[in-house]
Fold these 3 entries.
Entry 1:
Amino acid sequence: MNIIIYLEYFSFRRAPFQITTDEDFLYLSKQHSKAMAYMDYAVSQQGGFVIITGEIGSGKTILLKRMIRRFNKKATCINLSFTNLDGEELFQYVAEEAGIDVINESKVGLIFSLKKYFFDRLKSGKPSVLIIDESQNLSSENLEDLRMLAGLEVKDRPLLRVVMLGQPEFMVSVNRSEQLKQRVKLHYHLSGLNEVEVSKYIDHRLMIAGSDGSDIFPADVVKVIYQYSRGIPRLINKICDALLLCAFIEERKYTLRSDIDEVSGDLMISKPSEVLPSDIMDSNKCLNLNGIISESDSIDRVVYALESINKNLEKLANSLNVKEEVS
């Protein structure tokens, strides 16, 4: 089937729901806006790590692309998108991406070459920012090397800023290293969009594609899209693209919720009723990741919340007692 006919049928200038990352289609929900603000903070502040986690397809990479484009003239952005590395390969990869001519490829030689490069960049007014995607694939040795790089200083001035993006399990690795954990300035977790945001997300992409889309995705269809996708942008794209194809084949200008059940198997997307309890638990855990770097921090917050509840209950009880005495 010719994709051009598909676009013309719905009066689209561009395909609205492609899975490939396209910065033009970025929808800044409250979550994504906050994550982007954290990443901007990492570029503007000296030293330390900022970590953004999220499920596969939650929109981390598109935020990364936006950040690189926005700060390309203000900072030296070194982007590492391949993280299955061994031994000294991390230093070699950073040096290669930075365009450094390394004379001594020993670990010590690489460190000194990188330190000089970062210092020269800082003097020129373009501080170095190391941006790492798929951080969950980094080994404990890689993480220690990154901690070492982030600790490079000249006259108490940190030379490198680090932004790390990864799947939720990456925080397990971070929590294993107290030294690394203490270098984390901010951590934010991207969970799925809520139902209202899913509707706005779909409308936004349709508008960028060249259509108002007011009648293409009725409210009942959006509700089911939200249930199937769990608010994950990449899954929303897969479902919406398939629904548009179904409508095109049947010569409809609108989508039907019944189509979702029919195509979900072809898209390898589980029905909402087929989501395992463990998946729900994992999702709930992810929602509680924001701002929590260690298990002890989480426990402290729970204790504080319980103490606050008890105080409020005591105030309520005292108030009721006073009222009873008065009556």
Entry 2:
Amino acid sequence: MNSKKTVFVSTAILALSLLVVVFAGYYMSKNKEDKHINQLKLYFIDSANSELVEEKREVDLESKEDLIRYAVEQLQKMPNTVGLKPAIPEALKINKIIIEDDNVKLDISSYYNEMSPQEQVLLRAALIKTLTELDFVYSVEFLIDGKPLAGYDGKAIGAITQEDILLDAKGNDVASTNVQTIKLYFADQNGEKLVLEEREIVVNPNVPLEKYVVEQLILGPERNDLEMTVPKETVIKDIKTKDGICYVDLSSDFQTKHWGGSAGETLTIYSIINSLTELPNIKKVQFLIEGEKQATFKGHYDFSIPFERDESLIAD
């Protein structure tokens, strides 16, 4: 083969090679575009239940619905990073996902109400931070078995944005806390009357305010001239309000550790009743011990029926 033919063949081979490279690059680029690769940021919970940790995933999904469902499903599974755990506990079910413009409504099961306040905060934060990383999601709204998630005042919390979520070093939702003034009634030093003590406390609107009221009563008065009315060993098993009646479920220590006496029983019972009925949504209080109605407290009061407020016991 002469030199001219050799040069021609070499040039042709080089040109063909360049074409192959160009077309291969185009094909790979086109194929990547067709796969609609999206990078997601998922937020899982550390083993200490104190903070959220990010994991990135690349997914071949295009539709908004598919991306949201994939993100939620991944938060229910074990993360890839050792030392992290799912953001959504296994017992909590996602009933429905509703997309309305740039807001996502998540209807979750009532197991949410059995979670601790910190667990609730981290769950909400993980879902909000994960979903609002999608450029078409601005806010997330929560429903519990079809009913809007409500704050302590019974009003729906509504849509929450990523800017609303601010976790401190302990995982507490700072943005969802505020200061409330509550009215508590403790016994006077003679054990004859109830005396009002107002107290400012930091509350989370997702925790019933009535729970804070009873917790503060258990802690006892801050004033030196007042006496405690509830045994310090008392544990709140559950507390909820329905149709104006607050159902207060306390541990058996509330009965067994009480000091007794007719006057002592009266001040204990009505310190709780009068304190709780300071809240606008509570008209009566029904006591439960370890989840059950009792015939009497210590022999002087019928515990099987709800109690109403008694202002005659309040000192002038």
Entry 3:
Amino acid sequence: MIAHVLGARPNFVKAAPVIAAHNREQRLIHTGQHYDERMSEVFFRELGLPEPDVNLGVGSGSHAAQTAAIMVALEKEFIERSPELVMVYGDVNSTIAAALVAAKLHIPVAHVEAGLRSFDMTMPEEVNRRLVDQLSNLLFVTSPEAVGHLAAEGVDVDRVHFVGNPMIDTLLAHLDSFDTEAVRAAHGLPERYIVATLHRPANVDDPQVAAGLVKRLHEIADLADVVMPVHPRGRRVLTEAGLDDHPRVTLLEPLGYVDFVAVVRGAVAAVTDSGGVQEETTILGVPCLTLRPNTERPITITHGTNRLVTPDGLVSAVEQVLASPAGEHEVPPLWDGKAGPRIARITESWLNG
């Protein structure tokens, strides 16, 4: 039996094609790290994921408290169920918690989206992904440079498999469902808009930093309407900084997967600090401005529509995007909608062997 451990929105999007491709008995464990219905349950419905076999319901908390609660609950689950393999996704706290528990119980670990590196150890996600990769028996990478990162860290290359990006499997499978006109009408959105998403601690935890970003977003709104689904993490700080004080800024509650990608698809540009949005815009052909000093997904820059910007450079970057016609871009290798079946074939072969 394969135990899939999921905790947050990006996990669900990556896991759906992997779970669908496996024929072996599977158990779906939802840690409850994202516990808002709009951030979790709606994704299960839209992505065709089976109902979780168990929801640990850990909720929010500090990194230590949340990770510890997940570890305690997963240890009990793994001892009772004895999975052959624990499959983890991405870089959230649920991922590192599951990998640590499995490794100490001598249960093999498979990491989907291994080898991504921002080389910024101030990011909790970077700490998580580095540690998970050291604990994993099977490492599934989404882009070629990830293989080099793992080799440089001493990971046995026989454990590393370049399979493509399962998040793109999900995107391509639902492409016909992303109805921009319908979601525009449902939420009263303007014809021409920039979509913005912010949730990284470096951008939304410090009120002074958040206030500076709100000022930039208001300056962008002077150029074009801004539509922003507000992540629960940054809601209080951003709204206290006056995010919705500008008449051309439209704030939305968190959206389900289909509606969110439909909003992104219809935008003239995206301003984000999200890794997933960098990937989605690369396929959708939407210019993406990433408000971070680094990215663990450089292939979205070399092969996609993404570029890194500073807060001070954001407005001029938006002006350039608005003044430029959409350009051609190259789809990253193996981002072809078949990563899930590749992962399943390798996993089945490894377990049978």
